[in-house]
Amino acid sequence: MSRLVILAFAVALAAVTISAAPQAGFGPGDQDWGYVTVRPGAHMFWWLYYTTNPNVVSYTERPLVIWLQGGPGASSTGYGNFEELGPLDLFEQERNHTWVRNYNVLFVDNPVGTGFSYVDTNSALTTTNKEIALDLVDMLRGFYKHSPEFENVPLHIFSESYGGKMAAEFAYELDKAIKAGTIKCDLRSAGLGNSWISPIDSVLSWAPFLLQTGYVDVDGYNKITVAALDTKKAVDDEKWTQATDLWGYTEVVIMRETDGVDFYNILKKIYQPSVARRIASYRKGRMHGGALRDLTNFDEEINRDRVLSELMNSKVKQALRIPSNVTWGGQSGRVFSFLEGDFMKPCTEVLAKLLDETDVKVAVFTGQLDLIVATPGTVEWINRLDWSGHDGYLKAKRTSIVVNKYIEGYQRKNKNFAVYWANRAGHMVPADNPAFMDYVLHQTIGS
Fold first, then answer.
1. Which residues participate in catalysis according to the annotation?
2. Band of pLDDT at residue 25, cut at 50, 70 and 90
3. In this predicted model, what pLDDT tens digit does every residue of 52-82 receive, in sequence order?
4. Which of the 8 DSSP states describes residue 82?
5. Is 234 within 8 Å of 222 (Cβ atoms)?
6. Separation between Cα atoms, residue 337 and residue 178, nearest integer Å
7. Nearest to 208 by CA among 194, 227, 221
8. Beta bridge partners of 364
């Protein structure tokens, strides 16, 4: 073999095996980021934080955790990163319970059109959960092409709210792709936090939950129940867009009857604007992808969504060199509107297949103070879930989770399925109860 051929072979081998080098991004630690064109005209943005764990020689010794936000249309790189589990909080202060200390964390702005992700035309937006899942598989293919050293690193998909619905189908489609040999990936688990798996069960739980916690009386309970049952009829009749509209109307009834209870943590203080302002804010939130975000918490001193938007569209955008024509959150409203016909559809059948047809561990966790995806509704669909481990799960002993002598929650497990109840936590469990969340991560991912 000539020297020229040997040199060409070495160059080709290096092109395949050398990964992208970590770089300085926004905030502490090594980072990387980029776009994957998952379909013509559909560009998905990802932002990776390499672990800062001091006890490893190489970051590849630690697992890779993907975080998917809800909405649909809420940004992982924004909300999940700066308000829940990234290295910096919303006000650019270092967070003492960041996941990056133990894991490599990959925030993905998903579906396309969310956050810094964008589409060239509306026709490239997704309309079903399966389309979202397939886009995520393609995103991961592009990510591994950029950083092939992660192909052999254990992968764990964690999520929140509508992100849980996306994560369940993503994990299922990813497992199929792995078995088909179209992607190399070491998928281990899916964590579904306060997840929109069976939407109608959540809606039906609202009236009794509010009555039992004292936010409404019997009259308010009856009004909410009427709206919830109208929503259920639309679901039963498979009138999905109408069901989404009635879901929204039921939330408006709740706001009127409670004077604005916080949908994401019922113990938050309530600022009382006019009813008209509450409803106007709610509708504006839906138009901008905030469907399962904090739409009823009015803080006159700090508008957190405004602070986050300004941060993402100034310092972060500049540091990450985002294209000038891309505005963080600029297409989020369209993301939600294109999924209105899929929003109220359940994902229980896919989740049952994930449990029965794969070795993927599934961890469901739920905050006791959440209203939007209230624990009673979550327990309802879990108890009906049609999978091989159903009876064994119901017979399994429910035990407490004790961290530093405090009961942080409860758990029940069977086979590859575990359910965790979080004490003192609402919709955003990682932010509300970090000790509980660390326990769930340890149980699901390992040390």
1. 161, 370, 427
2. confident
3. 999 999 999 999 999 999 999 999 999 999 9
4. I
5. no
6. 32
7. 221
8. 192, 419
